[in-house]
Amino acid sequence: MTKLLSLIRVSLRANFGLSVLRYRIFTEKRDRWMIPLIGLAVLGLGPTLYGYLKLIEVLYGMLVVIGQQSAILTFGILSGQILILIFGLFYVISSFYFSRDLEILIPLPLKPFQVMLSKFAVILVNEYLTVAAFVLPVFIYYGILAKAGLPYWANALLVYLLLPVIPLAIVALLSIGMMRIVNISRKKDALIIAGSLTLIASGLAFQFVLSRSAGSGINAQALTDLFASPDSLLTRIGAKFPPSIWATKALAGGWSANGILNLLVLSGVSFVFFIGILALSEKTFYRGLIGIGEISSRRKALSALEISRKISSGRRPIRAIFRREVRIMNRTPIFLLNGVLTVVLIPLVFFIMAKAGSRDASLVALLGAFSSGNASITALVVAGFMTLCGTINGTASSAFSREGGQFWISKAIPVAPKDQVIAKFFHSYMIALLGILAAALVCLRAFHVNISALAPAAALALAASVFLVVIGMIIDLARPLLDWINPMKAIKQNLNVLFATIADMGILVSLGFAAARLLKAGIPGRSLLFVLFAVLCVFAAGSFLLLLKFAEKRYREIEI
User: Sign of the C-alpha dihedral, residues 452, 457, 458, 459?
Assistant: First the structure.
């Protein structure tokens, strides 16, 4: 037990690097500029949090009338758990099988379950931080609105601690099994990507089938049955993942018999899944690790023509660096899945939700409520959706961090920093374009948005994405994370990605509030779209020039 606790403590310190950060800020005083940046990030999060709380308040006011206000808790819990189920796969595979500290841990006198458990603890702590933005506002504001007592707050703490355990355990069990199969092949990276995509696609397909079966046959009698019981809406929402129902009833029931029973069920199932991870890891964890880092000794002989094609002439440095960026992304499954998959996955989830609920057209009705028949307002809403799908992926804000210790190559090669930055921008913007295109197809096919609204929305999204991609790159260039031992840390546990995400959300929410104010002031919708597009173009051009100038200075200052 002492070894395990020590290993978990060391793993947590290595994961967060708080001691190093504290030393750099207060002793070396090199990173003191981060203090005001953190303050600005918190201020930028304010408008987003305010909008989220207002949404919770509106939903509570609507549902309390029919006695189904506890469904709000299910929304928050289910959103957090689905987020863990989908994106937790990347954390688990990266930490379990691609972390560089495994070379140190495996020879130590530690049992497989101890190594696995230390990594699971690190992932669990990271997931607490990940779902905090979605779940904690719901828990806290619901308790305030409902004037909940001590039993609610005590159960809320326990439920939050148990919240990630079941979905993470499911992901861990699937990942251990998948890596055990993958290890029999020499093409491990390709199989890891294919297996991860298969697991995610299976989860989405399962959700689609459940949603279709639950959403079919909506009629007057079904609606009457839906609102007949205080728990009917709760059960309908949580049918896709029963632990969300147990957690909600544990919160709403407090210390009553029903509340205690559901809390015990949630705890018991979490414990069973946890024991299952320990048992499976003891038998198969190390077997999945064997051969992960091996490199095949077989090499194909290249002809003179192939060699000449592979050697750059030096005349097109931007194209060469762009290809290098693509290779860095493609050769690491964690980078590829987090960068490319995310921009497609978010629109795909919305598409499945829309198609699964096509009979009652709930999501289409929601979009119609936002637009109110006004094409300009619809264009603004769709532009925000497209921009989010294109830029909230961490590709731009980890453009320099992903190189890690290999960044010395970027400093040594005879290519100007501005040319390297331009190539990195093209790569990040290409990923954003993929997300914008996927979102546009979803809006066109699932939400039936007219071309008259989709075209200006696409123009706004393209301009806004340039600005947001550049902002993310500036943040990462200011403080690149180059000393990571786990590729997941470069893109998912990177403070630069967090700062860029908060900045992006703050900018988009601020633009949304500004547009709403201008509309209330009587500015015509078409004129507003034109003004907003012009402003975004100015911001994009100015920030891009700032990035190029900043790169010339920072490349000389960065130490490896």
Answer: positive
